Amino acid sequence: MRIAVVGATGRIGAKLTENLLAKGHSVKALSRGGPALDALVAKGAEPFLGSFDTGAGELDTFFEDADAAFLMVKTLWGSEDFHGHYPTVALRFFDALRDSPVKLAVNLTGMGSEVSGNTGHFQGFHILDQILNRLRDIKLVHLQGGWFMQDLSGWIDSIAHHDKIGWSLDPNVKAPWVAIQDIADLAAKEFDTPTDQHRSVKQLGIDYTMTEIAAIIGRALGREVDYRFIDRGDREVETVFRERFGTLGRWVYDNDTLAALNDGRVAFRDDRPALRTTMEEFVNGSLRPLIEKARTDGVKPETFLSWSSKG
User: 142 and 42: one domain?
Assistant: First the structure.
């Protein structure tokens, strides 16, 4: 099968591309170039310069000789265009795919993409999926990824120097977490055994509360790590955030995201594919070495997450 991979040199795309090439698929790799793309070309990928996130390159021709496609949108955490980025990229996908020979597309979306309304970060995924669903002649598999385990690295300094994780997810709320390698592996399987369904959704993640994650990290380190719940209704918290770490727009965006999780509007079903990587395995194999290194590296510039973890 000839597969066009969007974001081929990213954290997920690179692992997926290598996986597909190892299985004998022909891969057309979209990237803005550089050593990471050169490495994939050396393994047999065909390079294509461009980016659906920025609109760079001759994107109308990217899918023109492909049987299938892997789609994903880069999350621009530092951008103020919180809600505009996903629809813009989704429309670029739509325009490039609708007259292409692609018959199967695997779309990496996010939890909550089935929920309409004001859900903060998850609202973009909903719009993405709705636009792609207009592609009538293409079978679509929506892979709803949970929070990436790798993103726990945002608390490395907090754990290393304060033995705390501070966030505003309710301590009793279970949220799904998934390792990047598992996403790449499961995406590759969708191309090995193409679906017969016109539209399907698969949710990827193992549920943990933040208290459970803190305890898992503590056991791996051999010392107690606490979870500190940050009440975003506290005016001091809002003031510190807006004065030191972000804008009013970002404050509202994050509040809407966490509210959607805390009130249960965004949650996963129980019928999910089995995942290889548990939180315990990830923490012991990947996170613990980074935390131990951070203890000897010294304190880095403060972030909102590390500020939230000090009290």
Answer: yes
Edge-to-edge strand list for the sheet holding 147-148: 147-148, 175-178, 206-208
Q: Give, for all 311 residues of the chain, the pLDDT tens digit.
A: 999 999 999 999 999 999 999 999 999 999 999 999 999 999 999 999 999 999 999 999 999 999 999 999 998 766 667 788 999 999 999 999 999 999 999 999 999 999 999 999 999 999 999 999 999 999 999 999 999 999 999 999 999 999 999 999 999 999 999 999 999 999 999 999 988 899 999 999 999 999 999 999 999 999 999 999 999 999 999 999 999 999 999 999 999 999 999 999 999 998 999 999 999 999 999 999 999 999 988 778 999 999 999 87
> Burial code of 92-115, b = ≥16 C-beta within 10 A, e = fewer?
bbeebbeebebebbbbbbbbbbbb
Report the alpha-carbon distance of residue 104 to residue 119 in Å, rounded. Answer: 29
Number of separate domains in the chain: 2
141 and 14 in a single domain? The answer is yes
Domain that holds residue 80: 2-148+176-205
77 falls within a domain = yes
Residue 196 and residue 243 in one domain: no
